[in-house]
Automatic annotation (TrEMBL):
<dbReference type="GO" id="GO:0001671">
    <property type="term" value="F:ATPase activator activity"/>
</dbReference>
<dbReference type="GO" id="GO:0030007">
    <property type="term" value="P:intracellular potassium ion homeostasis"/>
</dbReference>
<feature type="transmembrane region" description="Helical">
    <location>
        <begin position="7"/>
        <end position="30"/>
    </location>
</feature>
<comment type="similarity">
    <text>Belongs to the X(+)/potassium ATPases subunit beta family.</text>
</comment>
<dbReference type="GO" id="GO:0036376">
    <property type="term" value="P:sodium ion export across plasma membrane"/>
</dbReference>
<dbReference type="GO" id="GO:1990573">
    <property type="term" value="P:potassium ion import across plasma membrane"/>
</dbReference>
<dbReference type="GO" id="GO:0006883">
    <property type="term" value="P:intracellular sodium ion homeostasis"/>
</dbReference>
<keyword id="KW-0472">Membrane</keyword>
<dbReference type="InterPro" id="IPR038702">
    <property type="entry name" value="Na/K_ATPase_sub_beta_sf"/>
</dbReference>
<keyword id="KW-0812">Transmembrane</keyword>
<protein>
    <recommendedName>
        <fullName>Sodium/potassium-transporting ATPase subunit beta-2</fullName>
    </recommendedName>
</protein>
<dbReference type="InterPro" id="IPR000402">
    <property type="entry name" value="Na/K_ATPase_sub_beta"/>
</dbReference>
<dbReference type="Pfam" id="PF00287">
    <property type="entry name" value="Na_K-ATPase"/>
</dbReference>
<keyword id="KW-0735">Signal-anchor</keyword>
<dbReference type="GO" id="GO:0005890">
    <property type="term" value="C:sodium:potassium-exchanging ATPase complex"/>
</dbReference>
<keyword id="KW-1133">Transmembrane helix</keyword>
Length: 260
């Protein structure tokens, strides 16, 4: 009898210990921040955008996707009364009902009136979306903390802002963004890029606010002079001190092919 009781106690202890481990692991993964970069217009499958400037149906496929995606940003679904213009790098107060607007209407040529550049041989635009969990707050870079593998143009921009406004400038409260070709051939084919409204996601949009009218921050990327008739593999990255690219955080890859 004693043997059975001891066996039951041992089995019970093992089960209890297993349950504790499972709960701890679940809590760990639930709390682990989600940090991903996505893009629009997103193909229904994969990450390949093929654009034929002579094919109206092909063009409409992409511009319609962007029209649908950007409806909340153009306030076609109804403008929230708590939207406000926010100062750069300064989010609304936590006890406030206000949320910062994402005004995409002036991001020329990445605007609806110009079909986001998809009817122009000067090159189209994509929109990058930063997705993060509510508890996450970015740790921003300054000139003394930038990593060696950050693109040179971002390093120079950070140095310029810091030299002008100081290391505590709100203009440095940015989750920076880069887009580059994957290989030397892609680097040459991608051509110059323009980022709007700036080189990243402004700090005014962090943390995520679970309030009516909240809009995820966007960055538009205009491909100004890409080489046509060649597949261009592109990698875009979000940059903050607590974004770990080695773990796949804040990175998105896509392929582009433009034909005229």
């Amino acid at each position: 009898m004693d043997r059975k009781i001891k066996l039951l106690l041992i089995v019970g202890s093992v089960i209890l210990a297993s349950l504790v481990v499972i709960v701890v692991l679940c809590v760990h993964f639930i709390r682990k921040p989600t940090l991903s970069l996505t893009f629009e217009p997103a193909p229904s499958k994969g990450a390949f955008i093929y654009l034929n400037f002579r094919d109206r149906d092909n063009i409409n496929q992409w511009t319609s996707r962007l029209d649908d995606f950007l409806k909340p940003y153009y306030h076609e679904t109804g403008q929230s009364t708590n939207l406000k213009y926010c100062e750069q790098g300064i989010p609304p107060k936590q006890n406030s009902d206000e949320v910062c607007d994402v005004d995409v209407t002036h991001w020329h040529p990445c605007v609806r009136d110009t079909k986001y550049g998809y009817t122009s041989i000067k090159g189209p635009c994509i929109f990058l979306i930063f997705n993060q969990s509510p508890e996450w707050l970015p740790e921003y870079y300054n000139s003394s903390t930038v990593p060696n593998n950050m693109p040179q143009y971002l390093k120079e921009h950070i140095n310029k802002v810091e030299s002008k406004d100081g290391v505590n400038s709100t203009r440095l409260r940015v989750v920076w963004v880069s887009c580059e070709g994957e290989t030397p051939v892609d680097l040459e084919a991608i051509g110059p890029l323009q980022f709007m409204p700036s080189f990243g996601f402004d700090g005014q949009y962090f943390p995520v606010i679970a309030k009516e009218g909240y809009l995820k921050p966007l960055v538009a990327v205009h491909f100004e002079k890409p080489i046509y008739s060649i597949v261009i593999d592109v990698v875009c990255k979000a940059w903050a001190r607590n974004i770990d690219h080695k773990k796949g955080q804040g990175i998105v890859r896509l392929a582009l092919l433009f034909d005229d």
